[in-house]
Amino acid sequence: MQSGVLLDALLSNVRNLPFNLEFAVTNKCNLRCVQCNVWRYYNEDPEKSREELTVEEIENIFSSYNGFSMIGITGGEPFLREDLPEIVSVISRTQRKLRMLFITTNGQLPETTEKKLREILENRDANGRRFRLVQLVSLDGPRNLHNYIRSNEKAYDRVINTIKLLSELRSVYDIFDLGTVTVCSPFNIDKFDEVISEIAKLKNEYDLEPSFCVWFKGRLYKNIKSQEDVEKFRRKLIDLIPEIKGVVKKRKSLLSTGRCVFYDLLNSWLENPTKQVVPCGAAKVRYVLDTYGNVYPCTIFNAAIGNLRHYNYSLIELFSSNRRRKVRLLVEREGCPICCNTCETIPAMMAYPLHTLIKWINSSALGFNRPHDSRKECKTQRCFL
Predict the structure, then answer these.
(1) What sign does the CA torsion over 343, 223, 282, 130 have?
(2) What pTM, to 2 d.p., does this model score?
(3) Strand partners, 100
(4) At residue 372, does pLDDT exceed 50?
(5) What is the C-alpha separation between 14 and 153, in angstroms, rounded?
(6) Minimal CB count within 10 Å: which of 84, 97, 176, 328?
C-alpha cells in the first residue's frame, strides 16, 4: 500500500495535480499550547466558528476531485467536530484512490476519540475500503514538560489514557496504525534527552510508530510573531538528529524508513537553510485546505490561492487558476519561506525520488550523519528559523 503511494506521487508530479492534502477541519481547540496559537482564533472572534465548512460543503469540495491518495486531517482538535466520522466518510466515498489517512489529535478526549475512531473504522470496513488509517497522538515529552507546553496539568495523563484506549482498538481492526508525533521546539529542546527517553519507553510499551516534526513559524499555527531564539534552537537540533532517528527507526516499515531519510535531509538543510533540500511540491503535488475553504500551498507560506466557496467548491477550477500558477512560480523560485518541514518535505521526497536519493547520498558522504560544527550562522529566519 505504501509503495502504491510512491507511484501516485510520481504520477501526480507528471500530471501537475496533487496526491496529498492537509485538511484542517476545525480551529476549535481545548488546549492553550505555548508553541501554537490556533486556540486564539475563537478567543478573539467567537463568531468566526460559524464560518467553518459544513459537511455538505466538504462533500462538494471532495466530489470535485478524486485524485488524493494521502490525506492528513488536523485542526485545532479534529475530534471536537461532532461530525468527524461523517467527514471521513465523505473523503472515503469520494477519494477512491485513497491509500493513507492520517488524523492528528492532542489526546485530550480519550473516550470521545476512541468512540469516533471506532465509528470511522466500522464505516471504512463496511464500505469495503482498504485505506490505512494512521492515528497520531501529540506528545512533547514527559509529564511535567508536556503539561507545561500544553498549559494544562492533566494533559499528559489524558494522552496516556488515549494511547491505552487506541492500542486496544488497534487489536480489533487491521490496517490501523497508532503513533505519536512530537514537536521539536524551543520549548523542549533543552530537555530533549528526557523527550527521547519518554517516546522510546512508550514506543516499546505500546508498539507505537513515533514521528518528530520541527517547530516552524507559519500561518496555520498562527505563531508567526513568536520571538524565540531560533538560532540556538537550530544549533541544538542538529546534534539531536541521530537520537531522533534511533527512536523512529523500525524494521520492515517503509514509513519509518522514509522518516529517517527525511531526518538526514533535515540535517543537511539545517547546515544551510537558505535553499530547499529537495524541490518543493507545494501548490503542485500538495495543498493545505483550511476550515473555512481557503487553500494554501503549505502550512507555512501565507499565500492564499483562493477560497473554494468562490470557485464553486471546485478544486479543479482552483488548480487551473492563474493565482495557483503564480503561487507555484513563487515556490519554484524560492520566493517563499524556505523550509524543511515533515508535512511538506516528505511528499516532495516522494514526488522527486531521484533528486531525493542523490541529495541523501551526498549528505551522507559529506558527513551529515555525524556530530556537526554548529557554529555556522543561520542565514534566514523567514519561517523557523
Answers:
(1) positive
(2) 0.92
(3) 70, 132
(4) no
(5) 49
(6) 97
